[in-house]
Amino acid sequence: MARRPHMIGVDGGSVDPGPYYLGAGKPFCSIMAIRRDLRLMLRAAIGAGIPLVIGTSGGSGGEPHLQTVAGLAREIAAEEDLHFRMALIHAEPAREDLLARLAAGRVRPLAGLPPLEAEVVGRAERIVGMMGPEPFLQAMEGGAQVILAGRSSDPAPWVAACLRAGLPPAPAWYAGKMLECGATPSLPKGHDCLLVTIRDDHVDCEPMNPIRRCTPLSIANHSLHENASPIHHVEPGGMLDTSDCRFDALSDRAVRISGMRWTPAQQYTVKLEGVERAGYRSICVCGTRDPLLIGRIDVFIEEIRKIVAEKAGAFGATPEKYKLAFRVYGRDGVMAEREPLRDATPHELGFVIEVVGETQEVATAVLGIARTNMLHTDFPGRLCREGNMAFPFSPSDVEVGAVYRFSVYHVLALDDPCEIFPIEYEEV
To answer: Can you give the residue ranges of the Acyclic terpene utilisation N-terminal domain (predicted)?
Structure first.
């Protein structure tokens, strides 16, 4: 804060943790951690008279996530005697509105997915739109000092502040790309703060923690992340082109980046992200170090599958009512069939047994059969007459709850970048 920044910004979320948090309406980070960080930022921003802008509030940017962070902001304001104008930017468009836009041909698929159908929209637990900088800019113009937004493009909060200051979009978007991950563009990487100075034709990056430093290589490396192309970054309203960027060290801990370009899009679009419920999950963790079992583990697992299908079917849990998965850690547990290093024979294997069923009762019942037979099923040459598996926990079976899957990953064309992102103001 001694460097007198003009804004404090946060990219508060991502789809990286998977579909559960969007579907369940729960934050990915703990409420304790969010409250702690939000208190620090509110104190600093209100004390300095500068904006605090948070995109993808609560981790996924749905309405429950936005309301959770807004509630925390109100609580902290009361506790700290802080006074400010707050804007909430909502990112969950009404289903009727989405269906009308779908019928009008305004939605197209991403990532090789099929065209979006009305039935998928109807089944979705939650659908959010990923806003660009324009709703943030509108909220700033509306006098908000604290801006909490639903799902947004990661760099959008900072881009909005730059555009409001009259800076060009190319360095604004590049700055946002750096700031969205905090001090990750520095070395050693870690969760920390980054100060970025933006001018008409370049961006300067410097970490604030004295243990970290930005180098030309660390900045260039970070600019490659999270995109299909390492140099073309598609965003709402256009594309950031970094193919001609220069990276010059200003010191042993600060770097200047120049040469970025911005190409406006012919059609303004935002991404839609939606999830639907896929069932209910129960899991069990166990492991073995029996070399004879490890030597025939694929055959053993197939035998377990057949036993489970027979025994679970006897109490009505037929195969179409659940999905049984074995994740074998110590052999292809991370990369699965894509693992190139498959020759080594491990001395022990860990298993995560997963069942996703139509109901929690079905999932837990099928898991119990799978776990029991992993433990006791015989195999040729077996010497151990007790159990095949060791269990780190009791109870061994864990009911995880509802499971979600991504069902909407499409692009929506807009005439106005703010038209599906209503803004609500309040005096806190």
So the answer is: 67-183, 214-368
